[in-house]
Amino acid sequence: MSGSMVPVTAPLTVAEAALADVASSLAPAGKLRLPLALKLAYTAFMAVLVPVYWTWYGPTNFLYFCDLALILTLVGIWRESPLLVSMPAVGILAPQVLWVADFLAELVGVPLTGMTAYMVKAENPLFLRALSLFHGWLPFLLVYLVWRLGYDRRAWAAWSGLAVAVLMVCFVLMPGPRPDAGLVPVNINYVWGMSDAVAQTLMPAWAWFASLLVTVPLVLCGTTHLVLRRLMPAPVAR
């Protein structure tokens, strides 16, 4: 064979260089404020969760606020965008605290709201339930991200507008609760009550839905907005 010898680059070196190129292309100019390892780990988790959820639950599952938060967070950590990480933070921190409390209560046999009853149903695949444990760690990740990137005060209005639009879609177009739903998403974002099996009977359906349109943006998100605005740093211009 003629010609000079061409050095063979180790596959690991090629992979590292490729990952560095991807990171530099997705991240904004300037010094990175989030570890690359965090970005890769979160992306790997999403690379598993999205196709699994899509296969088992279907695309409408991504109308849940928590799943929308996952997607916004994925884009936000690569863009290092204060707005894109502040939106899910202001939107789901309070509901996820309730989720964690309800899940712990379910584990000890004293359910609070029934919103996490699916986590203790043996007929639901264990792997799906394990993926759903992100509800427990995502709030802490969002607090860390907002602390590193700063809290963008526009997040409250942005998430509130998104939340109201999604609630309208869920109430008008998505199926309501039913006991035989299986893994099909029903009563998405609890627009018919806290149970996926039966609708609430405390008030007319329209009154429950109207209360959500007020409670979600003004009470849950509004309170979280005030806390984050007070405790978290403002975004720093890059």
Summarize this entry quickly.
With 238 residues, the protein is mainly alpha-helical.
Describe this entry's structure for a reader.
Helix content is 61%, strand content 0%. It has one domain. The N and C termini lie far apart (53 Å). Residues 1-11 and 17-27 have low confidence and may be disordered. With 238 residues, the chain is mainly α.
Q: Return Rg in Å.
A: 21 Å
Tally of DSSP helical segments: 8
Helix and strand content put the structural class at mainly alpha
> What is the mean pLDDT?
87
Distance between the termini: 53 Å
Give the low-pLDDT segments.
Answer: 1-11, 17-27
What best-fitting shape do the alpha-carbon axes yield?
globular
Number of strands: 0
> How many domains, in number, for the residues?
1
Q: Give the percentage of residues in beta strands.
A: under 5%
Helix and strand run: HHHHHHHH
The largest sheet is: none
Q: What is the helical fraction, as a range of percent? A: 55-70%
